[in-house]
Design brief:
Blueprint lengths: L8 E5 L6 H12 L3 E3 L18 H6 L2 E2 L12 H17 L5 E4 L2 H8 L2 E2 L7 H10 L1 H11 L1 H6 L5 H14 L8 E2 L6 E5 L5 H28 L11 H8 L5 H26 L3 E2 L5 H14 L8
């Protein structure tokens, strides 16, 4: 009996600054994978330097899907990302192509690879204004009391995710952590992971390069366009750049604080990956290190058309 070609999904996950983007571009160029992003900050336009988006030249070489979907003042929920990602994956499959999904945002990845379906609650602007007035410390403390499971995985300084969890709680009367259903995808999925031994040094180098490569200018533009209280400016890098622009921090202080916050983020990401995913960890970000894993998976899963 003849069977039509079968497409799947390759996922490249890992903590921030682990080399995912470079490896993903190399794999896409070598094997023709459509490249999709799973990064909760790269979905926003005009946030390029601070999110380490692929450069314009890299995007000319390899088109990136699922980036620049919204303006930074238009929050994107996990459910909305899931809908956009599933449509992009379906489009690839219709063309008998297996896409490569790359990123480090745990909920975004789980929404696709595990079929995690969060509550479909729209943003609540009035509630967010109230939480802004009360302050992030108060809001995260409230979340810790009302939804300890969500608070444990959300950084105390992460205003957007704290507010989102409280939005779901107030809109539905139930913690978001108790409402997540799972409906795994029907297509085969291969998860590859990167966790280089020199991750801390990579974070330090990348942080310094961002500040010296336009992060202050980018932050100033965002503040001028959307206001200094834009929630996305609370995230690592942007928050410290805002303080430099306000003369509350020196440049070297900002670099050191951002690097520390990014290392903390990387630890949380790794903890999430170990509890929610089972990737095949690669020894390096060299494309040849991934080839054997890709070949074995394609053969075992009857995935065609990878041209490995």
């Amino acid at each position: 009996m003849c069977h039509p070609p079968r497409a799947g999904l390759i996922v490249l996950l890992g903590p921030t600054a682990s080399g995912k983007t470079g490896l993903a571009i190399a794999l896409a160029e070598r094997y023709g994978f459509p490249l999709l992003s799973a990064d909760s900050r790269q979905v926003y336009r005009s946030m390029d330097v601070g999110t380490s988006k692929a450069s314009a030249e890299e995007r000319r070489r390899v088109p990136h899907g699922l980036i620049d979907l919204r303006d930074p003042d238009q929050p994107m929920t996990v459910r909305e990302f899931q809908t956009a990602a599933e449509a992009a994956i379906a489009d690839c499959h219709a063309r008998r192509l297996t896409p490569l999904l790359v990123g480090g945002s745990g909920l975004y990845l789980a929404a696709i690879t595990r079929g995690l379906t969060p509550p479909d609650v729209p943003p609540q602007p009035l509630l967010r204004e109230q939480l802004d007035r009360l302050g992030q410390g108060w809001a995260h403390g409230l979340l810790s009391r009302a939804d300890p499971a969500s608070a444990a995985r959300i950084s105390p300084s992460d205003r957007p995710r704290t507010q989102r969890a409280l939005e779901v709680l107030y809109a539905t009367g139930r913690p978001s952590s108790s409402q997540q259903r799972r409906c795994p995808p029907s297509y085969p999925v291969l998860e590859l992971g990167l966790n280089p031994a020199d991750l801390h040094e990579r974070i330090n180098r990348r942080t310094a390069a961002m500040f010296r490569g336009g992060l202050l200018q980018e932050t100033a533009v965002l503040m001028g366009r959307y206001g200094a209280d834009l929630p996305m400016l609370d995230t690592p890098g942007y928050a410290e750049a805002r303080q430099v622009l306000r003369r509350q921090l020196g440049l070297e202080q900002a670099i050191a604080i951002t690097a520390r916050r990014t290392r903390q983020l990387a630890r949380r990401q790794l903890s999430w990956f170990r509890s929610q995913h089972s990737p095949r960890w690669l020894s390096s970000d060299d494309p040849d290190a991934a080839r054997a894993e890709l070949t074995g998976w394609a053969e075992a899963s009857a995935v065609d058309g990878l041209r490995l």
